[in-house]
Amino acid sequence: MELTAAAKKVVVFDYGFGNVRSAERALARVGADVEITRDFDTAMNADGLLVPGVGAFAACMRGLLDARGDWVIDRRLSGGRPVMGICVGMQILFSRGIEHGVEAEGLEEWPGTVGPLAADVVPHMGWNTVDAPADSELFAGLDADARYYFVHSYAVHDWTHETHNPLIAAPKVTWATHGKPFVAAVENGPLWATQFHPEKSGDAGAQLLTNWIGTL
């Protein structure tokens, strides 16, 4: 599989809760100029910002706030500058998360609650297909039966975001099923995110990252 991407500057935001080295290697594989940092100016000035996330919602939020990641994300999005969240890095973009009875506020980029997976087997660990919109840019060039690597026990099961302004494109929502369907990815202007790990998803994940970098 031949992968190409412009040499765009991408910062993997290092706030202590993500597989930053795996993300760095995956992005470098598809041609990005990658730096792992929490430096505010560097993160602000990069062509793209990748926000990983592993662990509990509340802990990730505390780490992100301590690193001023909320400011970085908000200011980049205000200027239309691309941000991509992965796994818990996607979950914290929603309004709140509830884990083990502990409720924490998220960044509220999208309304919705991250809660326990509605499935007999938890965590959801392994390969799964997704149901992406036909006009998805994130999944462009990928077959419908492509599989992606998931590791999570929590997800968003109900998408409630609505766009009433006809001049603003509605978010594109991709779903996956493990027990009950859950949100697997979102494309919303400059803000994209995946519940699965593209950096662990082989050639399919590499193509997906190439698609993202191609929009920077």
TrEMBL record:
Signal peptide: none annotated. The active site is at C87, H197, E199. Gene3D superfamilies: 3.40.50.880. GO terms for cellular component: cytoplasm. Keywords: Amino-acid biosynthesis, Cytoplasm, Glutamine amidotransferase, Glycosyltransferase, Histidine biosynthesis, Hydrolase, Lyase, Transferase. Its main location: cytoplasm. It catalyses: 5-[(5-phospho-1-deoxy-D-ribulos-1-ylimino)methylamino]-1-(5-phospho-beta-D-ribosyl)imidazole-4-carboxamide + L-glutamine = D-erythro-1-(imidazol-4-yl)glycerol 3-phosphate + 5-amino-1-(5-phospho-beta-D-ribosyl)imidazole-4-carboxamide + L-glutamate + H(+); L-glutamine + H2O = L-glutamate + NH4(+). One of its GO terms (biological process) is L-histidine biosynthetic process. One of its GO terms (molecular function) is imidazoleglycerol-phosphate synthase activity. Pathway: Amino-acid biosynthesis; L-histidine biosynthesis; L-histidine from 5-phospho-alpha-D-ribose 1-diphosphate: step 5/9. Heterodimer of HisH and HisF. NCBIfam families: IMP_synth_hisH (TIGR01855). This is Imidazole glycerol phosphate synthase subunit HisH.
